[in-house]
Design goal:
mainly alpha, two-stranded parallel sheet, 2 strands, about 5% strand
């Protein structure tokens, strides 16, 4: 666990994570195609980045990203006692900070990618109620919801 979470820099952890997303994406798309048929499919996942999805969606309205602010991410990790593996390392505090910093870099990456591709992204800061975020997402997907009804 030290080799995995203590020794790499957060930047190296980010690059490893992004490569993992790229490597798995063909399998994800294969599964989604198999599930979809003529139905709408909603896919949510840590590895569905704007750079991967942009080439395969037919409309910018088919995707939206929720990106945590730094404070929200830290509060979420603390509340959920993440990472669960921290006590399996020789330095739990450092492994926690490496994961946190990796996730902040990932959030910045997703935010920049969404902006670059002209895709919708909302920052989640914990100040807006979940219902408000849900309403934003529902409005975003409304053209598809009308079509499916």
């Amino acid at each position: 666990m030290d080799e995995r979470w203590l020794y790499p820099t957060p930047e190296e952890l980010l690059q490893r994570t992004l490569q993992s997303f790229r490597d798995r994406f063909p399998l994800v798309t294969e599964d989604l195609v198999a599930l979809s048929g003529k139905q709408m499919v909603v896919a949510e996942g840590f590895g569905l980045t704007p750079e991967l999805l942009s080439p395969v969606i037919s409309s910018k309205l088919q995707a939206v990203w929720l990106v945590p602010t730094n404070d929200f991410k830290w509060a979420s990790m603390t509340r959920r006692k993440k990472p669960t593996f921290k006590n399996e390392t020789s330095d739990p505090e450092r492994s926690t900070m490496n994961l946190y910093r990796r996730d902040i870099l990932l959030a910045e990456y997703v935010k920049a990618q969404a902006q670059s591709y002209g895709l919708t992204m909302y920052e989640v800061d914990g100040l807006r109620p979940a219902e408000e975020i849900a309403t934003l997402i529902e409005r975003h997907f409304e053209p598809f919801l009308r079509y499916e009804r």
